[in-house]
Design brief:
- The protein is an alpha/beta fold and 228 residues long.
- It is built from 8 helices and 12 strands.
- The protein starts with a strand and ends with a strand.
- The chain is 41% helix and 21% strand.
- The strands form 3 sheets. It has a 5-stranded parallel beta sheet with strand order 2-1-3-4-5, sandwiched between helices. The protein has a 4-stranded antiparallel beta sheet with strand order 6-7-8-9, with no helix packed on it.
- GO terms for molecular function: cis-regulatory region sequence-specific DNA binding; identical protein binding; phosphorelay response regulator activity.
- Keywords: Cytoplasm, DNA-binding, Phosphoprotein, Transcription, Transcription regulation, Two-component regulatory system.
């Protein structure tokens, strides 16, 4: 069973320490950051399962951190802030936060809300949902395998990673920036030629008619969508 990884973002060392102690005592893995830029870098490198975020950071507003995160990830964000006004709560939630806890806070309540945020982010169902059937091929997300016409399809690690992101977002448009960030990392957000090359390779290997794809759809200038 994999441990849940939490990223704690707060510039108050005593709050970071308290959260680290309580989370680690409950078998969470914990990373921490004292400013927004560090938080964004760690989020890209470590892929946390949930982020606990203070809004009053020394280098940038926490709302801007949320907006940046939402450009490429749906990781649950639990805001922990001394800001009590409803306008500020609405602003954070509209930016993409999943929940909002005001300081001072009760540790039990915070942990309960954190568990709820993680649960909501989990895909519904169990093992069966890891196998995605499309017309002509099958993707097994747990086994990291693709079958077409009864045979394994050999994919490179990059092809697989790109396929996995699209399949996990089946039916939804995935933006170019998000795909580049998730597959190649934060330094490649403008390299859209990478997407064109690798999407062509996936279509060649999996589409019945690669020049008229039915599964890997391009939304010009925006991104790509996987349809079963």
């Amino acid at each position: 069973m994999t441990m849940t990884r939490v990223l704690v973002v707060d510039d108050e060392p005593q709050i970071v320490r308290a959260l680290e102690l309580n989370l680690k005592a409950r078998a969470y893995e914990v990373d921490s950051a004292g400013d927004g830029a560090t938080a964004l870098r760690i989020a890209a490198d470590r892929h946390p399962d949930v982020i606990v975020l203070d809004l009053g950071l020394p280098d940038m507003d926490g709302v801007d951190v949320i907006r940046d995160l939402r450009g490429w990830t749906r990781v649950p964000v639990l805001v922990l802030s001394a800001r009590h006004s409803s306008d500020e709560k609405v602003q954070a939630l509209d930016a993409g936060a999943d929940d909002y806890v005001t300081k001072p806070f009760g540790m039990d309540e915070l942990l309960a809300r954190l568990r709820a945020a993680v649960r909501r982010a989990e895909p519904p169902g169990g093992e069966g949902d890891s196998v995605v059937e499309a017309h002509g091929f099958t993707v097994d997300l747990n086994a990291k395998k693709v079958h077409r016409e009864g045979r394994d399809v050999r994919l490179t690690p990059t092809e697989w990673h790109l396929l996995e992101v699209l399949v996990r977002n089946a039916g939804r448009l995935v933006g170019q920036k998000q795909l580049l960030q998730e597959v190649w990392g934060p330094s490649y957000q403008t390299e859209t030629n990478y997407l064109r090359v690798y999407m062509a390779q996936l279509r060649r290997k999996l589409e019945e008619n690669p020049s008229h794809p039915r599964h890997f759809i391009t939304e010009p200038g925006m991104g790509y969508r996987f349809e079963r």
